[in-house]
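In response to the reviewer comment on reproducibility (Comment 2.3), we provide here a single inverse folding case reported in full, input and output, so that an independent group could reproduce the run without further information from us. The structure tokens appear first.
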């Protein structure tokens, strides 16, 4: 019996192969052997139900903010940090490589609220909220300085992430990036982190740590990827990430009357922000349809909004993680 995900597998394979000039409509465009689309669907115990190239590494973009905020709440619960403690707001940070200063660009961020406090303070809790719900870069780097990258690494270790998932630096640390220090993730590992949130993993601090993290993720403002592909009104708690050529989302889904699950989608493929959101939403929709077959004749599985996008994917994907000044890490 064929897998209910066979059609989706085929479409995702076509999306990747379309970046090869031998398969593309415009053979003058260069190929990109690194174009990758990864999907992980699993239960809250971390058991996968569907995987498509789920262990391939991708540049993490803003998905690195998920384990960072978990690490912050762990330290709060241990009594080492206080959510109400003021944190000085600055746009200048020290590189993890050599301590040299670098500046964030306010124009590349999505958090005017925290930037308005430049020279003043915001509480630790406010920074965590902005890092998740607005995907704030300035709040993220301030949290990195307060929480520490070792604590983030411990979160990844506890949930069983592979060595391919690393949070090695803050946002826009170009000196570290040029030295090969970066942030990478796999769809499978993103799924494991979010599943741990959903099941209130005791080793991470249980309900006391993870209930407020899930509540924050449920207030997410960037819901045009995985949540947009699910039936309207489906409760989700999610964290996405986007830079040119890279678009990811991981969502904890709690459908009414059904068991909760996690879906993580990572794409390294040359689409603009709008196309990428449609593409990821289409993947989430097809994952839902594969597990919820319908006899409704108006629900045509061949009416696929990802299809025109996959057919147009013919340009190369740039390795933005290796290029200084090219992150522009949003959402």
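Designed residues, in position order:
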């Amino acid at each position: 019996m064929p897998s209910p995900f066979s059609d989706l597998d085929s479409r995702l394979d076509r999306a990747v192969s379309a970046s090869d000039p031998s398969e593309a409509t415009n053979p003058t465009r260069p190929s990109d052997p690194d174009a990758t689309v990864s999907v992980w669907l699993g239960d809250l115990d971390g058991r996968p139900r569907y995987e498509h190239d789920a262990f391939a590494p991708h540049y993490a973009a803003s998905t690195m903010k998920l384990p960072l905020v978990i690490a912050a709440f762990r330290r709060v619960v241990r009594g080492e940090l206080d959510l109400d403690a003021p944190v000085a707001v600055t746009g200048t940070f020290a590189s993890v490589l050599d301590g040299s200063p670098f500046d964030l660009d306010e124009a590349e961020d999505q958090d005017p609220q925290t930037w308005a406090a430049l020279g003043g303070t915001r509480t630790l809790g406010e920074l965590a909220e902005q890092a998740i719900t607005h995907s704030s870069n300035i709040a993220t780097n301030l949290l990195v300085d307060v929480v520490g990258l070792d604590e983030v690494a411990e979160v990844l270790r506890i949930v069983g992430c592979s060595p391919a998932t690393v949070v090695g630096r803050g946002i826009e640390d170009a000196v570290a990036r040029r030295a090969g220090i970066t942030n990478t993730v796999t769809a499978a590992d993103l799924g494991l982190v979010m599943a741990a949130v959903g099941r209130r993993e005791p080793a991470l601090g249980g309900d006391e740590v993870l209930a407020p993290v899930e509540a924050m993720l449920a207030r997410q403002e960037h819901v045009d990827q995985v949540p947009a592909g699910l039936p309207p009104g489906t409760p989700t708690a999610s964290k996405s990430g986007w830079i040119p050529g890279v678009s990811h989302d991981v969502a904890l889904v709690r459908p009414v009357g059904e068991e909760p699950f996690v879906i993580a989608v990572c794409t390294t493929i040359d689409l603009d922000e709008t196309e990428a959101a449609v593409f990821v939403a289409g993947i989430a929709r097809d994952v839902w349809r594969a597990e919820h077959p319908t006899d409704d004749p108006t629900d045509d599985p061949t009416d696929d909004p990802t299809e025109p996008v996959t057919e147009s994917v013919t340009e190369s994907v740039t390795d933005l993680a290796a290029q200084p000044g090219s992150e522009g890490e949003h959402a």
